[in-house]
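Human: We require from you a protein record containing the residue sequence and its fold in token form, and nothing else.

Assistant:
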Amino acid sequence: MGFLSKLKNSFSSKKDHDRYLSGLEKSRNSFSEKIRKISLNFAGVNEEFLEELMMVLLEADLGIHTAQKVVDEVENRALDQKLKTADQIEECLIEVLSNLYRQDDEKPFNENKEGVTVIMMVGVNGSGKTTTAAKLANYFLSQQKSVCLAAADTFRAGAVDQLAQWADRLNIPCVKGKENADPSSVLVDGCRYAKEHKMDILICDTAGRLQNKVNLMNELAKMRRVVGKEIEGAPHETWLVLDATTGQNGLSQAEIFNEAADLSGVVLTKLDGTAKGGIVIAIKDQLHLGVKFIGLGEQLEDLKPFDLESYLYSIGKGFIDHEEN
């Protein structure tokens, strides 16, 4: 059984497969159609084909460095394995993308089995961070976990109230400070509340300012320090919320936040709103950070744990189905 057939069989058994297919429709239509188009005139893995493949990958937002890796690997495999047909190359391409994402072992969710697991959410304003914090809370509630929110984005007008409203909707507690309050003080209160009430998960929505790198690093370092004093090992996860529609620009944001906050993963929002779903591969390849969750719609339930097989099948379904017909 070939790689694509195994991928399809695995995908069909996934719980969220319908949501993946609908949420990644724009990326699939763009990526699959373009790959099929260059395959129609396939005359071998020559310079013209490799240039066209590079253009498709760049348009999918893999970025120049990651795209070049993929093109080089497809070319090498085609020569080594004597791949002759477009179908073989398409299968090779998806397998190369799979291996590129899996290049680093990804650590599992760092659950604090001795008490509260603290998740710190970071990211620029407009990335969907506050809404994502609420969606994450809903996800953990569905896992039968008790969840508390800490509204530490005290400098953005309305952010605290927005998170408090989500908490009311979800019927969970939200620890909040006043507007322009010290974010670290809110996190201290959140940690103490979560410990006192024996909560499983504390999700911290932090400020999203990026105007000054030094100030950002100092502020995030302080927040990490205070939660670490309150709960051993905290924050157990620090996730960057990244807007998928910003594409490669988002990677420069990620580099700065990674320096400042020692990120353990990325939550990629609004992936359903872009045709450039290749950003997933670029994030893993260039930043060595796993994508933990992806946003596939606006509803609370549309934030899904990232699954590589579902992602690959969903963006490549167009030519996978063609090969089987």
User: Anything to note?
Assistant: The first helix runs from residue 3 to 12.
